[in-house]
Amino acid sequence: MLRQNLDLLCSPLNGIGLISTDVFDTLLLRQPKSQRSRVMEGERRFARLLKQRGIHTSAEELFRVRLLAEKFAYRALNVGGGAGEVRLSDIIARQLAMLGLPPELLHRRIGLEMDIEKTSLSANGPLAMALRQQRQAGVRVIAVSDTGLPADQLSELIAHFHGPGLIDKVYSSADAGASKRSGRLFSAILAAENISPSGMLHIGDDHIADHAVPRRMGIHTVHMPKSRIRRYAARADGARSEALRGLRRQLALSGPAFRAVSDRNSFGHEVFGPIVAQFCLYIWLYATQAQAQGDCALAFCARGGIGIRQAFEALLARLQLPLDIRRENILVSRLVAARTALETRNGAVLDELGREFAKSSFAEVAHALGGATYELPPSWDATFVPAHFFDMLSSSSGLPVLEDVARQNQLFKRHLDMACGPATRIILCDTGLYGSTQRLLAAGLPERHFETIQFARCNYKGLSEDHFPDVTGLVVEANLYNPLRIETVVLRYWHIIESLFEPAIPSVRHLTEREDGTVSGNAGAIAHDVIDATAGNPLLSGVLDYIDHVESGAQVMRQADVAWLRLKRAITNPTAFDMVALGVGPRSIDFGRGESVHVLAQTDRTGLAKQLKSTKSQLWREGAIARDFPRMKSALLAALELAHILRGVSAHLYR
Hints:
This protein is of the alpha/beta class. 52% of the residues lie in helices and 11% in strands. Helix 7 (151-162) links the parallel strand 4 and strand 5. The longest helix is centred in the middle third of the chain and has 30 residues, at 264-293. The radius of gyration is 29 Å and the shape is globular.
């Protein structure tokens, strides 16, 4: 096949005035070495360069932050509808800023990247010879690449291996803000080269980006895929590199020394401090890429988002991390968001209401949504059935409820306009888990694009995941606790994360208009410069104290690794002190209702079997076991942990 393709390129190409060639794995052939191996080699060289300047940063720290910068940049790019590439210079700039390294090292680090590329690539001589023949015959030859490198650096690499005079022009997705895979880069090339699709021939190795997409556009293609041996060798190299990284990390974390903690404030400082700071760094990485794409606002959702923002702003100031994106605290809750979806008659709101009000009446649901007391006929006293609710609201008795909902929606839209301005892309920041607020707002206000970044993402509700592509769990994305993935331990006791960030204010239920035309709510003043989420919250106070003394992102990442181990022990095998430190008391069920539930409810059951059975209904099972079975605690908790391991293995095998 390769020989046939080259024979074709050496023959006259009737009607073709432009040949475009992919760069990597086509014009320039890679050695069977994975991208991660190449990046790690670059970080080793960078670490040596830093050491020469008196800066001691390990290659592993550099590599880890580089991967995080790439991960969240591409996530923000894709969620925001971007079709190009994240520029390598942006990724490295964020890596340097996060680690507190001098920004003037950017060009030296990119130079190292280019050096690595020059040692891991080789010239595709036969293809170059065929292209030169076509160029001599009068056909224009260009190079096109989906890459984070700009065109001038691609030109440097091509000239390094092929010498000058082979390529007339180079197009990079990093420069164009468009990619081959989306087809937009090809469209831009056709316009810039002033040529029809039928007059262009594209050569490349990727079946989608270099063959299927351009072919659908009417562009002629020559597909030159990599051999299976080269693909498998690169994958094997990547697996080996990742396994070695994992081993080194485990060795570094073996037998960590936990600092003694004596109260909730010190627990917040030593344990939650590094974990929250790590979360805030992830927010910055995501928001920085979103800022580069423009037309967006970062909205911190009451209640949990208020505490998140207080920690986030403190970390930005402490580490002097640049961020110009518009950001505000907003008055929103699942109830507020549900009203917007109700007005558009979107089915998503019925899912949420059905789950929240499974044993309630139509009248109770109407009262929660409308926020008033209504004189409703007896039919509204029937048990709530989601499928009938829209019809009930459309009846004459339901119109007052709809009118109140519409008034609340108008106030919320005005509040959103004041907080986020004209931005069409609104990034909600909250604790998690399912992303109900985002799902409902997206259904109710389709004129804006809503996405959510939150601590964790988990489909604990068992409802649709259609909105999950727009919901990012920055720290955790999993539906089950996996003992082998330490961060998922928060799914065993999620209420501690919610409680950590929430100020002592009620959930937003009702909005009102002030005399000056601004919108307020029952939650009170929530502006960042007005409310203090640490009031009465010693855990969050400890977090802010930690952030006030942090020196760099590298310190945060190192200390977070240890803090996660300490938090896992506190949640899955709590001591008497851990029970006090992580106690959150009753939790409001919200959604317009005043009831609360206890995370650790008191039980009066007698008999061992009944007591054990009662732990299944507790929101923190490990805490209930530690409280109710102090003598059997070790055996019961070990058995529970084993059960989670077996469940994780089973889910992996049969997914």
